[in-house]
Every structure is written in C-alpha cells, then in structure tokens.
Amino acid sequence: MKLYISMDMEGVTGLVDDTFVDSAKRNYNRGQRIMTAEANHVIETAFGEGIHEVVVNDSHSKMNNLIIEELYPRAQLISGDVKPYSMMQGLDSSYGGAVFLGYHSRAARPGVMSHSMIFGIRNMYINDVAVGELGFNAYVAGHHGVPLLLVAGDDETAAEAEELIPHVTTAIVKRQISRTSALCLTPAQSGELLREKTIQAIANKERVQPLTPPEKPLLTLEFANYGQAEWAHLMPKTRMERYSPVVSYQADDILEAYQAMLVMTELAMRTAFC
C-alpha cells in the first residue's frame, strides 16, 4: 500500500506561536527540526507495518520546511511552492490512505494558531459544511477514493477530524490553552504517541471511508474584511452580495473548488490595510 502524508506545521508539538512557523523568526529552525522528527516517526513506523511507499507533501507556507537530509531515507518528499493542488499535491487514486500531520483547527474554532489558509478567512463552506484546511483536504482525498486514516495536531484539530470522519485515528500532541499557548508533549513523548497511532491507523484502515465530496459543490468564503472579498470577487464565476464580505463559487467538482479557493485567497491577500 502507498501512503500519502500532508505535513503542516502549526499542529506540531511545542510549536505554539508564529516564532516557530515563520521562516524569518527566531524559533523557526527549532520548529523545522521538531516537524521533521514528527514526520519520521510516522514514516518509519508505516514502513514497519508493511507500507511499501510513502510520499510526504510539505504543506506549510512556502512548503520548503522539512529538512530533506534528515528525512527518513525511504520516503519521498514534495517540496516547494507553487503547486496546482497545494497541500494535496501529488495525491491520486493509487494511494491506500492519507495522513495529515501537524494540522490545526479551522479559523472559527479555538486551537493553537487556528486559521483557514489565510488569516483573512473567517469561515469556509462546501455547500453547508463548514471546513478548514483539514476538511477541504479530506474532501480532495475523498474525490480520489482515498480515506484519511490519521490526523495529528492539538485537541481541537482532533475533535474537528472526528466530527467529519467516522473512525479516523487522531493523535493529540498538545492541548490548546489559547491560540498561542498549549500543554505540549515533549518530542520524545509525541514520537511514542505518533508511532502507536500510526500502527493503530493502519490496522483500522478498513473501517474508515473516504470523505466523499458533493457533486458540483458550492464553495463559500466569508472574509474578515470587505476589501478582501472585493479582491476575491475578481475571480470569474464568483458571486458576492453588496455589504457582505462573502464570496461564493459554483464548481463542477471539488478539485475545481479547491483551485478556486487557492486563487481567491491569493487575491484576497493583496488587500492593503491603512
């Protein structure tokens, strides 16, 4: 079986604020090392459980955070930006399961560094289902018939995953106190937990069904600022009500919705605040 890993950074143990996840700030190199170690615990264990191929997609910020020379040698790494499917680049129907590591909760929930793609998003919906990065990415996996087997992050991330996907295995490596503080496992403890949960997730794979996306999904993005919605509304085929920072897009399938979301959020980040 082939295993796909999408690796974000905010949900890694010990990483509690932007000084760990912003490459310009003082704790970033520490964050890289801890992130890479968490990936290795899952990768090595997966190979030990009979997985024959593991591909890791670096999915945070510029997507070049994992230290390749320290990555478990049998793994393959997708690194760098820009990627047509961003956090889910490279996934297809040949994979038997997906794992989301270092994930965080969506913008409207509590959780360590909670957000949805950019800090300008307040809420994101597929039809009437509220999703963040975790939910949207799980729908993309479901489009390919790939079940989400394991999610690692804080306690709010685990709860979000369990609400969306019955029987998914979750690994709670820290418990949020506020958006920038948490009760964290040490890296040694998180490594032990991740190995245990990887074994559990692989053994449990037959019980987990792919999160099947709706046909012709309606994507709706609620922005924090009207100017962000104006920029996003430059995307063709979008709809926006006057006096509301909400932009919607009727997609033919979830892959189109995903790419529309990527374009709309990139546009929204051009908003100037003065």
Please give a structural write-up.
The chain is α/β, with parallel strands linked by helices and 274 residues long. 30% of the residues lie in helices and 24% in strands. The chain has helices at residues 28-48, 133-143, 155-164, 187-203, 226-232, 254-268, and strands at 2-7, 53-58, 76-78, 97-103, 121-126, 129-130, 148-154, 169-178, 181-184, 218-223, 238-240, 246-250. The longest helix is centred in the N-terminal third of the chain and has 21 residues, at 28-48. The mean pLDDT is 98. It holds the Pfam family Peptidase_M55.
Distinctive features:
274 residues, alpha/beta, seven-stranded mixed beta sheet, 6 helices, 12 strands, 30% helix, Peptidase_M55_sf, Peptidase_M55, M55 family metallopeptidase, DppA_N
Shape: globular
- Largest beta-sheet details: 7 strands, mixed
Low-confidence stretches: none
Strand content: 15-25%
| Number of helical stretches of at least 4 residues | 6
| Spatial arrangement of strands, main beta sheet | 3-2-1-4-7-8-9
Helix-strand pattern: EHEEEEEHEHEEHEHEEH
The percent range for helix content is: 25-40%
The end-to-end distance, rounded to whole angstroms, is 52 Å
Mean pLDDT: 98
- Given helix and strand content, the structural type is alpha/beta
Q: Tell how many strands the DSSP assignment holds.
A: 12
Rg, alpha carbons: 18 Å
InterPro entries: DppA_N, Peptidase_M55, Peptidase_M55_sf
Pfam families: Peptidase_M55 (PF04951)
Organism: Paenibacillus urinalis
Protein name: M55 family metallopeptidase
